Amino acid sequence: MVTIGIVGAGLRGRLFAEALQAQPDVTVVGLAEPSAKVAEEARDATGLPVTASHPELLEAFDPDAVIVATPDFAHRQIAVDVAEAGKHLLIEKPVATTLDDAQAIAEAVHRSGVRCLVGFENRWNPHVVQAKAAMASLGEPITASATLSNSFFVPTTMLSWAAQSSPAWFLMPHTVDLVLWLTGRRPVSVSAVGSRGVLAQRGIDTWDVVHALLTFDDGSTATLSSAWTLPDAGDGIVDFRFQVIGTEGSVTADLSHQGLTVVTDKHRSTWPLSGRIGRSQVGPAVWMVQDFAASLVDGGDLGPGIDHGVLVTEIICAIEDSITTGQTKHITERRTT
Question: Which of 146, 220, 222, 330 could form a disulfide with 214 if both were Cys (CB 3.0 to 4.6 A apart)?
């Protein structure tokens, strides 16, 4: 039996708790959440105990593993403490929002020898998995592109901490991981541009739109775009598309709503690959956390790992630095898994 604690009792923490309820040989022992209001909502939704902090969670329940589902900028102390306590980790993407924080987490993970999965959930998206399998027939990658954007709803309503994030931090970890995984190429440099002002007028002082160009060690490239300014009355809150062009073919995907659109006289809604079927939640995030737990039970492979997570954080840092300075930024060569 593997016991798991969850730090962060918001939407994601509760989703993970529910996803693991029927997992064989797995028990979620409790959650940690500093907000009294969110903690009470989580108790009502999950029926699980909720402590006020991660040290209390570790002391009260001594879990085998911990899922870190807090806002992106709040990962460092939690992940370091958990690793130093000898507990395995699932850390939501990105690992951290500074390279110093990410490296501190990686050092703690390596020093303690615990297992760590970074939550790049699109590796559990069936369409992305099929795209990865198709890469073997496409020859050598020439270029890739990916767009992942949200409507205004996400920074203005869904995230209370949007001003401490950006489209680069909230969205591009997904697309950076995507192009690295699909192409298998090592990034060597990044150049980026962005614009801001529209969200600032709504009280959220962060980037509206970010565009980045990655260059790889073989000269191939990838272009990434993310915005937090899609209209709320548009075609759903997520726009997610990607393409990889190789010397012998290409693969193209539109993952915005998996083909399902519901239109009434009052509104138009599109649906991603997630939700409830019968008694079970489905979708990439659910399958990811279930795979994490199953790997802890049976000792199976666990990835993407902490070093890959640090690389993605370094790339996002370079993207934001490039926007600010107008200069191309070089990426450190590092081992990843």
Answer: 222
